[in-house]
Design the sequence.
């Protein structure tokens, strides 16, 4: 028997009904967070807002925002609202300075997450009959386990292949008849190219659909991956702070936008400069309030992702709002081979090395389907005129330090003093040559 994970009653609920559920949950959440988490209480007190001030969904705007620094300041578990014996899992975001952002889940949170992931897979047409090839990385990163639990909830067969070992992945796809591929879009393209090299015709595989996300990708990339793998490619969005993958998901009826699972995640779009909520349909920074999370709820969390909300009803029947593809970020975060990299982290490494000048440039490119990062950095006259073997040693040390701290392999190039262009305003630290 084929089963779907189609929660029809809630997924197609008329807006009034949905909003009433959201309001009930919001009130409950704000009261609980105020009572249990001192940093939240302090922020609400400072803004002179009490849980009882939340009487409508619009009252959400009275509440202060939560930002990534709040998470870092309360590292690792300071914003958890339940005792640790109720926390059954933690994850952490990739590639951050010494202190990653840590998130926690209760048993019920894991169930909620599996539920939204199963819904997301259903949006892509997956059923219990599918063989789900999960090439998202397993580990602290939310992608692997998030997709895994969702696939099991759906009742499909999950292949926990994780990332890497591309040749083996292709053999598994052939032998196990994988029908749904879950991966980052750039890795999906890698797989496609590896198939071409090995002479494997994707038409001989059972692959039907790809669920791709965790990094930005363009419509052009969608077309390319669809053509090269002979599948339909759909977009999935999420971030570890809010849950992980499965916050929003594209359905098969539209190429425009992803349904946000609004019974769990309440979205707002704000002007990133003023913090004001923008009128419906305008582009701005996406903000989320988690309505049902137990261990690590968030109130008005600023994602720094830029998008707009689409209010029109979708042909699939789901009444949940859609968000357009992410078009950018309000900060300078780069995602390089799935790792979040901030230029300030590279700077931090460079400044810890003697003889290195505070002038550097990060060049990001895409070779084939692989992101590459190169760092050009000025060194002092004395160092630059040193023996070649010493320069090479220094280069290797910086590369190793960056790899250690950020988890990204990069190519370091030492250059003479005053060769990196000085800017008159904001320094252009990053040149991103990727056409994505
Ligand atoms: P995860 O570990 O789930 O990738 P992270 O917290 O490391 O989450 O990164 C989340 C960020 O990844 C998002 O804020 C967004 O910038 C980016 N991202 C995730 N999914 C997508 C997507 N489908 N399209 C564009 N960017 C995405
Ligand atoms: Zn739809």
Sequence:
């Amino acid at each position: 028997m084929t089963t779907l994970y189609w929660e029809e009653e809630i997924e197609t609920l008329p807006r009034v009904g949905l909003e009433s559920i959201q309001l009930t949950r919001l009130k409950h959440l704000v009261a609980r967070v105020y009572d249990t988490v001192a940093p939240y209480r302090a922020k609400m007190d400072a803004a002179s807002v009490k849980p009882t001030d939340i009487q409508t969904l619009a009252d959400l705007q009275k509440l202060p925002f939560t930002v990534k620094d709040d998470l870092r300041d309360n590292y690792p578990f300071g914003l958890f609202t339940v005792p640790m014996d109720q926390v059954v899992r933690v994850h952490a975001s990739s590639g951050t300075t010494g202190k990653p952002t840590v998130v926690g889940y209760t048993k019920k949170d894991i169930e909620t997450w599996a539920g939204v992931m199963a819904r997301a897979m259903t949006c892509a047409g997956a059923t219990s009959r599918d063989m789900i090839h999960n090439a998202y990385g397993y580990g602290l990163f939310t992608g692997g386990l998030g997709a895994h639990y969702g696939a099991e909830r759906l009742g499909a067969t999950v292949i926990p292949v994780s990332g890497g070992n591309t040749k083996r992945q292709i053999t598994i796809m052939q032998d196990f008849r994988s029908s749904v591929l879950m991966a980052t879009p750039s890795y999906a393209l890698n797989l496609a190219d590896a198939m071409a090299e090995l002479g494997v015709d994707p038409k001989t595989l059972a692959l039907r659909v790809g669920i791709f996300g965790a990094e930005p990708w363009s419509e052009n990339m969608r077309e390319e991956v669809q053509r090269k793998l002979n599948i339909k490619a759909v977009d999935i969005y999420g971030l570890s702070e809010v849950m992980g993958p499965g916050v929003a998901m594209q359905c098969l009826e539209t190429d425009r936008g992803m349904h946000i699972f609004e019974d769990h995640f309440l979205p707002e779009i704000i002007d990133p400069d003023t913090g004001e909520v923008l009128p419906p349909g305008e582009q701005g920074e996406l903000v989320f309030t988690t309505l049902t999370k137990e261990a690590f709820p968030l109130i008005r969390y600023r994602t720094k992702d830029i998008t707009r909300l689409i209010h029109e009803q979708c042909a699939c029947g789901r009444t949940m709002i859609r968000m357009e593809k992410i078009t950018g970020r309000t900060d300078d975060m780069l995602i390089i081979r799935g790792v979040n990299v901030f230029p300030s982290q590279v700077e931090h490494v460079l400044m810890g090395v003697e003889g290195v000048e505070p002038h550097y440039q990060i060049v990001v490119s895409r070779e084939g389907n692989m992101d590459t990062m190169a760092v050009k950095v000025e060194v002092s006259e004395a160092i630059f005129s040193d023996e070649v073997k010493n320069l090479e040693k220094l280069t290797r040390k910086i590369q190793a330090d960056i790899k250690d701290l950020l988890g990204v392999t990069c190519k370091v190039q030492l250059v003479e003093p005053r060769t990196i262009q000085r800017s008159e305003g904001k320094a252009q630290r990053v040149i991103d040559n990727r056409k994505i």
DSSP finds twelve helices and 21 strands in the chain.
